[in-house]
Write a structure and sequence with these properties.
- The complex is a heterodimer of chains A (647) and B (94).
- Chain A has 647 residues and is α/β, with parallel strands linked by helices.
- Chain A folds into 3 domains: 162 residues, 3-Layer(aba) Sandwich (Rossmann fold); 89 residues, Helix Hairpins (Orthogonal Bundle), CATH 1.10.287.1770; 375 residues, no CATH class.
- Chain A has a 7-stranded mixed sheet with strand order 2-3-4-1-5-6-8, sandwiched between helices.
- The relative contact order of chain A is 0.07.
- A 7-stranded antiparallel sheet of chain B has the order 1-2-7-3-4-5-6.
- Chain B has one domain: SH3 type barrels (Roll).
- Classes of the chains: A alpha/beta (647), B mainly beta (94).
- Chains A and B meet through α3, α12, α17 and β10 of A and α1, β6 and α2 of B.
- β10 of chain A pairs antiparallel with β6 of chain B.
């Protein structure tokens, strides 16, 4: 083979060190984006090796190649349609059986492949010894033992991959053999599908038809519905023979094969003393001790993110605002100067002072938590509590972080498995009062009505989160939320991988968020410069004055709040010409509460909207935004009438 | 089935005591309310290794009716309680 450009795909379970291998292979030549039209992350990179230019695609971490999740479907399609020159199947040596279950499915796709038998060190600690040569013989697939976090075996892996590609058309892998009842029926279906052009091999199509795979059924249906009904009939026969559905039978038998291979290739000598990792697991998931440990860790995280963030944010904005006089002298303080400074520069400053100081440490810590394995333990402890709002344990992290800043919290929702869970978690997160909204709650209600009223607003907010969370949970279509999560052994994360993941995701966020933030602030500045704010306030007055009972100028302040929530209070002071809001006529305690309620819920700030756009696309971001505006306005008006009755 | 004083019983996974092991007999999907509680879950659980005939050990459960920690095929899983209730296992008890 004398092709100079090669395509390698990395595939395997979650948490097997796939991304570490990916980072070793591609270094800084990588690009992280989404799969076209999907919100599943796609990581790609390039490397040069022995005169070849090799593109590497890191497929999502999955446990099977069925159609349970978008990730699984994307991976399967990618392998079948794009036909990478080779698939490197990264396998966790410490959980061999379950990993081989996935390997067998890759083999059934009849793709050229090699296996990276990773985490050999963790396996060894658990007393598992694996004979790689034997495994290679049993599967008929080349196996390279690796310890990715130490860089061991990576160059051999690459060498082997290129070698295997050069050898040309692969020798057939060992076939996964099912029980007689299934095997007898496969050839019948193969014969029916053989003529048709599928991207999957005929035996694979036949097996998947027996399993009742919806995607394959759809494709086959287009060619000949007869085949699907025959498959259903055959599957029924198997079900009658076994007493379990045909899909269950096939999955069981595939697991049996994986189990057999694993048992033959590995020797198990469990350590007598529990390992440190094991003890740490016991402590961090303990019925009693687990919670203080968690509370302490989370407080520490929260504290460090926001101390670092506040400090750096202030430092940065101080630095940037020093340039304002220079700008004024360059562009004057007329319309042009105002637009450039107030619109573009302040937008950029807002972006930088929000994005960098908070999102950077957040991403690092999030990846650290995830890779080390602690995140899954937190999810284990918090699952029950999060179920009350229709989410499962993993959502606890983004929701909690929302109290600091909604932006990283929304970005963090990607730790959830399904698209639906991600969206639900993000929606709930945007309702959490972030630090900027805390400024309003404490600065207005806390200051002028007393701290107990501020606390009541927080409690009320929790109540709303609970109600809306449940409501969204019921209305959003799709599978309901339940926890099926692996708790892999504790391990030290690979620092370089964590840093690279952070860096590339931050860059991606900046690319999407900054234009939005700049356009947003420019639009508001334009409105201000051209004297449109007053007319807008008048246009809004039916809502602000008639329905919410607030002074008309609050309309302007709420618009500015879109940029940064704390600006609502700052603008209010500027426009009213006083910081003693209690003196303002027509702005009594009731109005303060209503104003704060509206500010709390009415819209996520522009940076949060940008984060939503990045994660879920503009349509969903827009619907969340519109919903929250409408909700806040309705809520404010109702609150006004109830409070007026009470007062 | 009686055998030297031990009794085989089919119970839900949540009925196992901490440290007890059972053999999966079936996953009763489609129970309970709400949509989507069918094929997807069953398939997912089986893809994670909980196929009929597999030995599964309950390590512990999180407090306040939280999820279960189980060992299956050499891996450690956390299963939401609602789901664990639908997994049926056979146990031998004195």
């Amino acid at each position: 083979m004398n092709k100079k450009k090669l395509l390698i795909a990395l595939a395997g379970n979650a948490n097997v060190g796939k991304s570490v291998i990916f980072n070793y292979l591609t270094g800084l030549h990588q690009h992280i984006g989404n799969w076209p039209g999907k919100t599943v992350e796609r990581a790609e990179g390039t490397l040069h090796f022995k005169g070849y230019t090799i593109d590497v695609v890191d497929l999502p971490g999955i446990y099977s190649l069925s159609t349970y999740s978008l990730e699984e479907l994307i991976s399967r399609k990618y392998i079948a349609v794009e036909r990478p020159d080779i698939v490197i199947n990264v396998v966790d040596a410490s959980v061999l059986e379950r990993n081989l279950f996935f390997t067998l499915q890759l083999m059934e796709l009849e793709t050229p492949m090699i296996i990276a038998l990773n985490q050999m060190d963790i396996a060894k600690k658990k007393g598992i010894e694996i004979d790689a040569e034997k495994l290679e013989k049993l599967l008929g697939v080349p196996v390279i033992p690796t310890v990715a976090i130490k860089g061991i075996g990576i160059s051999q892996l690459l060498e082997k991959a290129v070698q295997t590609i050069k050898k040309g058309p692969i020798a057939k892998h060992a076939k996964v053999k099912y029980g007689d009842e299934v095997e007898e029926r496969i050839p019948k279906l193969i014969k029916m599908v053989e003529g048709a052009q599928f991207c999957y091999p005929p035996r694979y199509v036949a097996i998947k038809l027996l399993e009742g795979d919806e995607e394959i059924e759809r494709e086959v249906n287009r060619i000949n519905p007869q085949i699907v009904s025959t498959a259903k009939k055959l599957a029924n026969e198997v079900e009658n023979l076994h007493g379990h559905s045909c899909s269950t039978v096939i999955t069981s038998e595939r697991y049996e094969v994986a189990g057999c291979v694993a048992r033959e290739a590995q020797k198990l000598v469990p350590p007598i003393e529990p390992t440190i990792e094991e003890r740490l697991h016991t402590l961090t998931t303990h019925k009693v001790m687990g919670y203080p440990v968690m509370a302490f860790s989370l407080l520490l995280i929260f504290y460090s993110i926001f101390t670092f963030g506040d400090y750096t944010s202030e430092l940065l904005s101080g630095f940037f605002y020093e340039w304002e006089p220079l700008f004024a002298s360059l562009f004057g303080s007329e319309i042009v100067g105002k637009l450039i400074w107030g619109g573009i520069c302040e937008g950029i400053i807002a972006g930088i002072t929000i994005a960098l100081p908070y999102i950077l440490p957040f991403y690092i810590i999030l990846y650290f938590l995830e890779d080390s394995g602690y995140l899954s333990r937190i999810a284990f402890l918090m699952d029950n509590a999060m179920h009350k709002i229709g989410l499962h344990g993993k959502a606890f992290i983004p929701v909690m972080l929302g109290y600091g800043c909604n932006v990283p919290a929304c970005l963090g929702c990607r730790i959830m498995e399904t698209q639906r869970e991600r969206l639900l978690a993000a929606f709930v997160t945007t309702l959490v009062p972030c630090a900027a909204r805390t400024v309003i709650i404490l600065g207005l209600v806390g200051q002028f009505l007393g701290i107990q009223w501020a606390l009541m607003l927080y409690v009320f907010n929790l109540l709303i989160i609970f109600v809306l969370g449940r409501l969204a949970f019921r209305t959003l279509p799709g599978e309901s939320t339940a926890l099926i999560m692996e708790m892999h052994d504790y391990r030290w994360p690979h620092l370089k991988t964590v840093l690279k993941q952070t860096w590339f995701r931050l860059a991606e966020f900046i690319k999407i968020a900054f234009p939005l933030i700049i356009v947003g602030s420019l639009a508001i500045k334009l409105a201000e410069v051209f004297g449109l704010l007053e007319p807008i306030a008048t246009v809004l007055s039916p809502v602000t004055v008639m329905w919410l009972g607030l002074p008309a100028i609050t309309g302007i302040t709420l618009i500015f709040g879109v940029l940064r929530k704390e600006l609502t209070l700052v603008m209010l002071a500027t426009l009213l010409g006083t910081t003693n809001f209690a003196d303002v006529p027509g702005f009594g305690p009731v109005q303060m509460v209503v104003f704060t309620l509206v500010a709390m819920f009415y819209i996520p700030c522009v940076a949060t909207i940008a984060a939503l756009v990045k994660e879920f696309g503009s349509k969903k971001a827009l619907s969340i935004t519109v919903f929250e505006i409408a909700f806040a306005i309705i809520l404010g008006g109702v609150a006004l009438r109830i409070l007026a009755l009470a007062a | 089935m009686e055998r030297r004083g031990t009794k085989r019983r089919e119970v839900s996974l949540t009925a196992l005591r901490d440290g007890e092991t059972g053999t999966v007999t079936s996953i009763k999907a489609g129970h309970g309310r709400g949509r989507g509680r069918g094929w997807g879950f069953e398939k997912r659980l089986m893809d994670m290794g909980l196929t009929p005939g597999t030995k599964v050990t309950v390590v512990k459960s999180a407090p306040f009716h939280g999820p279960l920690e189980v060992l299956v095929r050499g891996s450690r899983l956390a299963l939401g309680r609602g789901m664990a209730e639908r997994i049926f296992v056979e146990i031998e008890r004195e």
